[in-house]
Amino acid sequence: MIPATEERSVWLGLRRGLAGKCPSCGQSKMFSSYLKVLPKCASCGHLLAQYKADDGPAYFTILIVGHAMLAPLLFLEAVRTWPVVWVTGIMVTCVLGATLTLLPLVKGAFVGVQWAIRDRGGV
């Protein structure tokens, strides 16, 4: 287990979290399934279940997808000229794919930042 006096960097926590690795050691995986955080790290024994991400990752994922994908749509000519069914089908597919891809990355980063600032979600 990593001592409590060790210097923790937000960037280190972000990098390890985005990679889906334990924020403490960076060796073992953080998730047992799509979004389920393992109770503890297999390598260092760090208690990963203590970090409560709750709705934070979903909020940031919506924020990222909304700003990165939906806002630029307002300026595309295809949105105004193509049939509504086409635009809707393409955009729903793209937004859904981006959201499902980003959600575990953002959750890992969220847990990594919680580790770095020693926040255990109100525990």
How would you describe this protein?
- It is a single chain.
- The chain has one domain (10-116).
- It has 4 helices and no strands.
- α2 packs antiparallel against α4 (84-116).
- The two termini are 19 Å apart.
- The protein has helices spanning 10-18, 56-73, 77-81, 84-116.
- The longest helix has 33 residues, at 84-116.
- It is mainly alpha-helical and 123 residues long.
- It is 53% helix and 0% strand.
- The chain is elongated and about 55 Å long.
Structural key phrases:
123 residues, mainly alpha, 4 helices
Write the layout of secondary structure elements.
Blueprint: H1 10-18, H2 56-73, H3 77-81, H4 84-116
- Count of runs of 4 or more consecutive helical residues: 4
Mean pLDDT: 90
Oligomer: single chain
What helical percentage do the residues reach? 40-55%
Could you say which structural class the secondary elements and strand pairing correspond to?
mainly alpha
Structural Rg = 18 Å
Distance between the termini: 19 Å
Q: Can you summarize the main beta sheet? A: none
Strand % is under 5%
The tally of domains stands at 1
Shape designation: elongated
Q: Number of DSSP strands?
A: 0
The stretches of 5 or more residues where confidence is low (pLDDT under 50) are: none
SSE series? HHHH
